[in-house]
Amino acid sequence: MCLAVPGKIEEITGTEPILRTGKVNFNGIVKTIHLGYVPEAKVGDYVNVHAGFAIAVLNEDEATEIWSILNEMSQQKK
Amino acid sequence: MKFMSEYRDAESTKKYIREIQAISTKKCVIMEICGGQTHALLKYGIDELLQDNITLLHGPGCPVCVTPLDKIDKAIKIASMPDVIFCSFGDMLRVPGSSEDLLSAKARGNDIRIVYSPMDALDIARQNPDKNVVFFGIGFETTVPAVAMAVYRAFELNISNFSVLVSHVLVPPAIEAILSSPHAAVQGFLAAGHVCAVMGYREYIPIAEKYKIPIVVTGFEPLDLVQGIYMCVKQLEEGRAVVENQYTRSVKKEGNIPAQQLMKKLYKTVNRQWRGIGEIADSGLQLKKEYGAFDAEVKFNLRNILVREPDNCISGMVLQGIKKPTECAAFGTACTPEHPLGATMVSSEGACAAYYYYRKNNEHSA
Ligand code: SF4
């Protein structure tokens, strides 16, 4: 129920921050999503979407952290 | 980067599991709050891979499962009124009320529709000005902003034939209720990533301090879950008890400020019944008086309906992590997803349904 699915913003419509919507691509399926809660989002950004609303812009720098930590851990043991 | 499939990589997940096993020296009990996490842990068999030292308990984080009986009965009552279109997320239709579920009310000819977003229900209201359109507003903090926006737009545009049956619940009071119960066995929590994407995680800091318990904000993919468990076990091994964030790609400490602002504007906290568990103080949200015209319980005068839970189902204990679904006499026999006795068997995120799908024959698909 609290699942949010990541998708990529392809197009943004509207200028008033709270009413903006966008075309968001979820692995090939494109849906119109409300962007009112992510005023900082731009075309090309990935957002987490729940119940038709983007609730967070995904941070690409943080996204790969998980593997660096894992590599570090296995390095330390060598 | 697609932000999804990469986090399902079996190799990295296994590596992390080995890291957990390497640092874990004593038995510990960790609870994941969110039903989506319960579902993933069972689906990928992570609980079984870790079972030597780590017991995973499943928390009350399935909003479908904890929606109180009286709200289901109210939903059916409203849906059965003339000139009403009742809109809901699909999961709610099969949750048993005291005498029937929404699906049977639909079969009786009532106009009950499944929608993907509360905004779809608002659109239906605009297209059907001669009908009363009511949305079943369930969900945790993750879902509240979506419902809030629908109410706020209805208020601004004066769409008076739209209202919401509000049944939102909040996670931190439930964590506190579990920790202060005399049955409390939980030593660490995985907090639900998407709840925190909205609310941030400041609220958890005093809880971690007060109960001396590690809380790790965790995502939903297998790799997220094993990293979250790793961080939690590491804290327990080192004798630390703080709030940490595993899900940094989606969660900021302060959360989503615009969403919180609208929530604050529209709702106030109230005591709320959790199905199977009972009342938890300040654990629910209700629309403020100014927005009463959009509150279906006010509009249809249903505030005073109260109903008692049946007692043939132990889902309350399952939801608090006191019993596992397999300890219920009805599990898989009298109670199945086709004929659920309790709400935890309905939603695929309910612990009973997750066990039914992934553990009944002791096999799992990875
Ligand atoms: S198996 Fe069915 S009856 Fe037993 S606790 Fe779960 S939902 Fe309730």
Describe the structure in your own words:
The complex is a heterodimer of chains A (78) and B (366). With 78 residues, chain A is an alpha+beta fold. Chain A has a single domain, classed as SH3 type barrels. Chain A is 22% helix and 40% strand. Chain A contains two helices and five strands. Chain A has a five-stranded antiparallel β-sheet with strand order 3-2-1-4-5, with no helix packed on it. Chain A is elongated, with a radius of gyration of 16 Å. By secondary structure, chain B is α/β, with parallel strands linked by helices. Chain B has two domains: 1-311, Rossmann fold (3-Layer(aba) Sandwich), CATH 3.40.50; 315-361, no CATH class. Chain B is built from 16 helices and eleven strands. Chain B has helices at residues 10-23, 35-43, 46-49, 63-66, 69-79, 102-107, 118-127, 144-156, 171-180, 193-199, 204-211, 222-238, 257-266, 296-299, 315-319, 351-359; strands at residues 28-34, 54-61, 84-88, 112-114, 132-139, 162-169, 188-192, 215-218, 243-245, 267-274, 278-287. A six-stranded mixed β-sheet of chain B has the order 4-3-5-6-11-10, sandwiched between helices. In chain B, strands 2-1-7-8-9 form a five-stranded parallel β-sheet, with helices on both faces. In chain B, helix 6 (102-107) links the parallel strand 3 and strand 4. Chain B is globular. The two termini of chain B are 22 Å apart. The chains are: A alpha+beta (78), B alpha/beta (366). The interface between A and B is large, with 35 and 51 residues. The site of iron/sulfur cluster (SF4) has 14 residues of chain B, from helix 15. Iron/sulfur cluster binds next to helix 15 of chain B.
